[in-house]
């Protein structure tokens, strides 16, 4: 293996390791404390942001992560046509940060 290939592999491994450190799942038992402290909105309010965007969709999964100093609520939905959507919502403000169709 040449030096360039070794360097590229080492760089990719380093990026993968640093990404894992930057995004942490928030343990379920800490969510209520964050809501109570006013750090994040209630999960009902965050779910409403998602269902307002896709009114006839059903929530299939949710996850709260702490990424780059922000709390991000990730929601997976399935709409009436069977299409799956992934939404990222700022858990503090309720702002829709992005959505992607699977």
What is the structure about, briefly put?
The chain is of the alpha+beta class and 102 residues long. Helices cover 40% and strands 34% of the residues. The N and C termini lie far apart (37 Å).
What does this structure look like?
- This protein has 102 residues and is α+β, with helices and mostly antiparallel strands.
- Helices cover 40% and strands 34% of the residues.
- It has 3 helices and 5 strands.
- The protein has helices spanning 3-22, 28-37, 43-53, and strands at 23-25, 58-67, 70-78, 84-90, 96-101.
- It has a 5-stranded antiparallel sheet with strand order 1-2-3-4-5.
- Mean pLDDT is 85; it is low at 15-21.
Notable characteristics:
102 residues; 3 helices; 40% helix; globular
Strand content: 25-35%
What structural class do the secondary elements suggest? alpha+beta
The biggest beta sheet reads: 5 strands, antiparallel
Question: Helix count?
Answer: 3
**Which H/E pattern describes the elements?**
HEHHEEEE
Uncertain ranges: 15-21
Average pLDDT, to the nearest integer? 85
Q: How are the strands of the biggest sheet laid out side by side?
A: 1-2-3-4-5
Rg result: 17 Å
Shape: globular
What is the helix fraction of residues, given as a range?
Answer: 40-55%
What gap, in angstroms, lies between the N and C termini?
37 Å
Number of strands: 5
């Amino acid at each position: 293996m040449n030096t360039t290939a070794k360097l590229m592999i080492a760089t990719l491994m380093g990026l993968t390791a640093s990404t894992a450190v930057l995004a942490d799942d928030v343990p379920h038992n800490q969510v209520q404390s964050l809501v109570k402290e006013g750090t994040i909105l209630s999960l009902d309010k965050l779910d409403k942001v998602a269902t307002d965007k896709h009114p006839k969709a059903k929530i299939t999964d949710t996850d709260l992560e702490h990424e780059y100093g922000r709390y991000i609520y990730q929601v997976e939905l399935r709409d009436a046509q069977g299409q799956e959507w992934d939404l990222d919502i700022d858990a503090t403000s309720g702002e829709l940060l992005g959505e992607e169709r699977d």
